[in-house]
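Justification of computing resources. Each target in the renewal requires a structure prediction run like the one illustrated here; the chain below, 288 residues long, is used simply to show the kind of job we budget for.
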Amino acid sequence: GPHGEAVVEPEMSNADISDARRGGMLGEPEPLTEKALREASSAIDVLGETLVAEAYCKTWSYREDALLALSKKLMEMPVGTPKEDLKNTLRASVFLVRRAIKDIVTSVFQASLKLLKMIITQYIPKHKLSKLETAHCVERTIPVLLTRTGDSSARLRVTAANFIQEMALFKEVKSLQIIPSYLVQPLKANSSVHLAMSQMGLLARLLKDLGTGSSGFTIDNVMKFSVSALEHRVYEVRETAVRIILDMYRQHQASILEYLPPDDSNTRRNILYKTIFEGFAKIDGRAT
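Resulting structure tokens:
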């Protein structure tokens, strides 16, 4: 795949791993490279070099442990900690979470999602941090999460897409209307089949959950996106675009028509538009 050589996950339980470590079998995580020291310098200032070195370690179980240790650290931060420290810790944590979302080892990826959920739904509310902090979490992680919905592993694609849907519905995130705006970005012509299908599927699901009233989805951005998706090379993408347009018509009727070419025999030569206009007639109860 695009990530270089795959890491094979050993079949070891967590107990085995900590035993092995206590016995010194795994040794210490290797020291950070110059590049990592530069890249992670602000996270090191806040979280310490030991934890960051674990997060960067070549041994995947250390990378997973770093996220668990970070989670514990965040859970234990007392109420009343100076806001500045709380924000710096959040930003350093999100830096490591974002890196772990890209991890090729499933358990590290899953640990990053757990930690991100905890930060948004527990850490931020507990310490009464502002919407800006929640927005930071979402803006930093949603692009990499969307990339994972195009992964070669079906299980990972589903996990990533389900998490995005779940995150978009957290009350703390929903009000920000950020995630819908990412989903209506035009599909890149060269994006992978999986990525395009995931984005369409997520858009269709979240549109059902959120609707177009002050959600980040508008009639305008959804229709412009869907009409351009009718041109996509992948059949499933075109099919989902048709379904979304019909759903939009069911709810908004005539205001949808301005986004489409005129309903005439010329337009109906295109099988997709024929399907769409016949669908409208059916919704209206008109015979075709």
